[in-house]
Every structure is written in C-alpha cells, then in structure tokens.
C-alpha cells in the first residue's frame, strides 16, 4: 500500500484514509503500525468486494447510520460495519493473513458502540 502524505486528504479530524490501494495521510499525522493494519483491513475488505461495492456499501451504510444517529445517539462513522471490524482487529499483527472473507458482516446487526 503506497502512502501519500498531504495537507488536503483526508478531511480535517481524520489522520488517514484508504482509497483504491493508496493510503492518504494528513500532514503531521503519526503513521503507526496500528494505523497501517487498520487500513490494510480496509484493503482486504475492498478487494473482496471488488472495490466499487466496498465504497458503495460504505456510503450507504454511513448514510443509514447517520439518519438513525438522532435515535441511537451513536456515532455513524464508528458504527459502519467495515470500520467496526477494522477498529476491532487493528491490534492483531497478521490478522489480514488469517481473516475470513466478509468477516465485517458480523458487525452489521451487533449492538452499536
């Protein structure tokens, strides 16, 4: 995964963003092993979903969770199933080597964080 450090992507408030095999890192953000593993999980998710479906699912689920946010009081971004898997497993070295395909599906209907 190629890392591109810049001042514009990702948006303010975020340190990094994965996009089609590239990792955009905000200038001044610390790029640690955990962040790399988190984004590597997104890379595996995107590959298994043929990339375009990854982004479509991500946006649709985020919008749905954003609409439900006033009722649940939960953070829409942190509760996207793709993000929940990445955050839950980012500490495990070698997780992407042993990860089961579509593991993120188990996070869709679990209790929001």
Structure report:
The chain is an alpha+beta fold and 113 residues long. It has a domain at 32-107. The protein contains four helices and three strands. The protein has helices at residues 33-48, 52-72, 81-89, 95-98, and strands at residues 2-6, 16-19, 22-26. The longest helix is centred in the middle third of the chain and has 21 residues, at 52-72. 19% of the residues are buried.
Largest sheet: 3 strands, mixed
The number of helical elements comes to 4
**Strands of the largest sheet, in order across it?**
1-3-2
For the termini, the CA-CA separation is 29 Å
Radius of gyration: 14 Å
Average pLDDT over all residues: 93
- What share of the residues does DSSP label as strand, in percent? 5-15%
What is the percent of helical residues? Answer: 40-55%
Uncertain stretches: none
Structural class: alpha+beta
Give me the count of strands. Answer: 3
State the order of secondary-structure elements, H for helix, E for strand. EEEHHHH
Tell me, what's the shape? Answer: globular
Outline of this structure?
Helix content is 44%, strand content 12%. It has 113 residues and is α+β, with helices and mostly antiparallel strands. Helix 1 (33-48) packs across helix 3.
Architecture blueprint of SSEs:
Blueprint: E1 2-6, E2 16-19, E3 22-26, H1 33-48, H2 52-72, H3 81-89, H4 95-98
Parallel strand pairs: 1-3
Antiparallel strand pairs: 2-3
Q: What are the main properties of this structure?
A:
globular, three-stranded mixed beta sheet, 113 residues, 3 strands, alpha+beta
């Amino acid at each position: 995964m190629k890392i591109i450090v810049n001042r514009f992507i990702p948006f303010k408030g975020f340190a990094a963003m994965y996009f089609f095999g590239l990792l955009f890192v905000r200038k001044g953000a610390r790029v640690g092993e955990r962040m790399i593993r988190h984004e590597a999980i997104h890379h595996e998710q995107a590959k298994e979903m043929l990339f375009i479906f990854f982004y479509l699912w991500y946006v649709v689920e985020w919008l749905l969770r954003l609409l439900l946010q006033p009722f649940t009081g939960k953070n829409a971004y942190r509760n996207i199933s793709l993000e929940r898997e990445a955050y839950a497993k980012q500490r495990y070295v070698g997780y992407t080597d042993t990860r089961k395909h579509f593991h993120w599906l188990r996070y869709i209907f679990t209790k929001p964080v």
